[in-house]
Amino acid sequence: MGQFQQLKAADGTTFPAYVAQPSGTPRGAVVVLQEIFGVNAHIRAVADGYAADGYLAVAPATFNRAQAGVELGYTPDDIKVGFELKAAIEALPAPGVLQDIQAAVDFASQAGKVAVMGYCWGGLLTWRSACLLKGVSAAIPYYGGGITTEEEVARHPKCPVLAHFGERDHWIPLEGVSAFQAAHPEVQVHIYAADHGFNCDHRGAFDATAATLARQRTLAFLGQHLGA
After folding, report:
1. Verdict on whether the full-model pTM lies above 0.90
2. Which residues are the active-site residues?
3. What does the pLDDT look like over 19-32, one tens digit per residue?
4. What is the edge-to-edge ordering of all strands in the sheet holding 3-8?
């Protein structure tokens, strides 16, 4: 089990991050970026899982600049609140929340090379991290909402990227995924017979088969690019 601690961004803003330590010498580090539901029980469990696999796991509270202490569930009301908070963060002047993610990457680098992975909105932030931040050795976006927009497709990653999508994802049509693949042949793209949110066992869209396979591929990717 991890615990929250305060990190500081380049502009002096402090924010909490859930930090899960491995039991032995770290194999590297992963920065885990939340969905639109905060650093909730699911995201903490994801961080704990990667810590159990030997990685220092850091999950920054990327809503903190809009509202502190956000921890939502997956009801329609929670989704509405989450979208509003996401909009508030996305409206911040650049670099916005990316400076918080950079601070999390810098903190995580104490364990060696750092990968960034994220889910839904966190998947979009993972893609931006791969393209814009320093010290990122690998990036793994899961069903990153917005990645397939023209603005995001125009970005160029500075590290290896492994992207997971669901073929039944009504938020990310397959046409957009195909266009993303065509524009970025350097990115490893996997598409699963699953819906948006298939990795989250706290919601109805959870698909154990897809989640297990995606995690196996993610661990192999981490092993390849974090050098452990």
Report:
1. yes
2. 120, 169, 196
3. 999 999 999 999 99
4. 3-8, 14-20, 56-60, 29-33, 114-119, 138-142, 162-166, 188-192
